[in-house]
Automatic annotation (TrEMBL):
Name of the protein in question: 8-amino-7-oxononanoate synthase
Family listed: Belongs to the class-II pyridoxal-phosphate-dependent aminotransferase family. BioF subfamily.
Domain Aminotransferase class I/classII large: 30-365
Pfam families in the record: Aminotran_1_2
Keywords, alphabetical: Acyltransferase, Pyridoxal phosphate, Transferase
Organism expressing this protein natively: Chryseobacterium jejuense
Length: 369
């Protein structure tokens, strides 16, 4: 144990010296340019009041689920919510998970077997990499959003392949060429899995839905901790995939189901968004305002995540601290979370940010750079 402790301390020291030590900080007051609450649902009093009303009518929603889904935890609320979600996204099935991390862990550790290859975009979320480690399949990476590179990899494979992409990438804030990738998946008979953690809610029910690609994807992952202001995730798929996951996915089987409150708040979130389409319109207006200031960014012009590359950990840290002193909460992403030389300030725009706040933020960045 002592030997390991030394190793832990050395690793932490290294991070501290590089200025990249992660610590848990209390939330501070300031203008939110860092949370994933893109549509402001997590701060909406109206949404909170609707949830409260439901809880008052049925306090049982707050209680523990008492067991895994396969034993005593499969409530009417979770089954009802899954049916609702499947229908909403026009898939035959949906399977709920307590978080997107768990959903990805279940999918990629379970569907591919040892003869298969998982081809991931190099910027795919960490949860997919962790799941690949749990699976017995081989993992290959293709250059970010590079369909030529993806095809060159697909061409060389003899066994079955899975392709893992996000529709909107959370580090770069750019969109995947999802229709072209779906074409490649069809051509090479590969299974396509699309994670829509950041696109859901921002672009309606996600880009798979907007492009009508339901029949082209093996699974579509939707998460609810971002634009929906709640928590949890759904895997959208066909009945066989759902049943296979229920039978073989350890992250689904060996855990207590979440409380009904979580599933109820997801269903309520969908209904709330249905009546509040103005939030995503306001968000797009704010993204436009931000982009109009001309800061150089690799992010898409419709993305709520706008990254500013500052390829120097110290300079990046100093920029983030300067902004923080001015009351702007942003998030700096250092290497090794992103590749060395691509360290960045990650700015998240929201429906509730004001024009003045966005203008003051961009001016402060321009002054610093
Ligand atoms: C692309 C992507 N997938 C999955 C997840 C995990 O989702 P959750 O936060 O619900 O665990 C995240 C969260 O950061 C994400 O960005």
């Amino acid at each position: 144990m002592l030997k390991n402790l030394n190793r832990f301390q050395e690793a932490l020291c290294k991070r501290e010296q590089a200025g990249t030590l992660r610590t848990l900080k209390q939330k501070v007051e300031g203008v939110d340019f860092y949370s994933n609450d893109y549509l402001g649902l997590a701060r909406s009093k109206e949404f909170q009041n609707i949830l409260l009303e439901k809880i008052n009518k049925n306090p049982q929603l707050l209680s523990g689920s008492t067991g895994s889904r396969l034993i005593s935890g499969n409530s009417k609320v979770v089954a009802f919510t899954e049916n609702f979600i499947a229908e909403k996204h026009q898939f035959s099935s949906a399977l709920l998970f307590p978080s997107g991390y768990n959903a990805n862990l279940a999918l990629f550790s379970t569907l591919p077997d040892r003869h298969d290859t998982i081809i991931v975009d190099e910027q795919i979320h960490r949860s997919v990499h962790d799941a690949c480690t749990m699976s017995n399949a081989r993992k290959l990476k293709f250059k970010h959003n590079d369909i030529q590179h993806l095809e060159s990899i697909l061409e060389r494979q003899t066994g079955h392949c899975y392709i893992a992409i996000e529709s909107l990438y959370s580090m770069e804030g750019d969109l995947a060429p999802i229709c072209e990738i779906a074409e490649l998946a069809k051509k090479y008979e590969a299974a396509l899995i699309v994670d829509e953690a950041h696109a859901f809610g921002v672009f309606g029910n996600g880009l798979v839905d907007q492009y009508g690609l339901q029949d082209r994807v093996t699974a579509n992952v939707i998460t609810y901790g971002k634009a929906l202001g709640a928590h949890g995730a759904a895997i959208l798929c066909n009945d066989t995939v759902k049943s296979y996951l229920i039978n073989f996915a350890s992250p689904f089987i060996y855990t207590t189901s979440a409380q009904d409150f979580q599933w109820m708040s997801i269903k309520t979130g969908y209904d709330f968004l249905e009546y509040h389409k103005e939030f995503s319109i306001l968000l797009q207006e704010n993204i436009k305002i931000f982009r109009s200031h001309g800061l150089e960014s690799p992010s898409s012009e419709t993305s709520p995540v706008q990254s500013i590359i500052i390829p120097d950990n110290q300079k990046l840290k100093s920029l983030q601290e300067t902004l923080s002193k001015e009351g702007f909460l942003t998030y700096a992403i250092y290497s090794p979370t992103v590749k060395e030389g691509t360290e960045r300030l990650r700015i998240c725009l929201h429906s509730f940010n004001t024009e003045t706040e966005i203008t003051r933020l961009t001016e402060a960045i321009i002054d610093f750079i």
